[in-house]
Amino acid sequence: MVDFIDQHRDAYGVEPICSVLPIAPATYYAHRAWRRDPELRCTRKKRDAVLRDEIKRVWDESEDGVYGADKVWRQLHREGTRVARCTVERLMRSQGSSGVVRGKAFKDPGTATVRTNWLG
Prior knowledge:
Strands 1-2 form a two-stranded antiparallel ribbon. Strand 1 (105-108) and strand 2 form a beta hairpin. It folds into two domains: 2-40, no CATH class; 42-120, Arc Repressor Mutant, subunit A (Orthogonal Bundle). Helix content is 58%, strand content 7%. By secondary structure, the protein is mainly alpha-helical.
């Protein structure tokens, strides 16, 4: 949304665009400031950026990305990175990475057939 406002702000102005879109002008200006200087972000966002890289590294090092949030969290603790398990789960979900679920059947919404996730 911020990119859209940046593209059209010269023609229409920030406040009129924000009145149509579901974003406050102050939020728009805050996002622009964070893009210019990442140090202005809150402490949680800064730590999340560091943890995302660590989580991605541990998940990639697992055999073909089989580690779920629990195993990634345990590996991070073994390496000395103290982080809450729910934080690992939240960040993995935001990255779109998840562990393998073995032996549970699920319905494939595209084909309406039942497959098992055990062997692929």
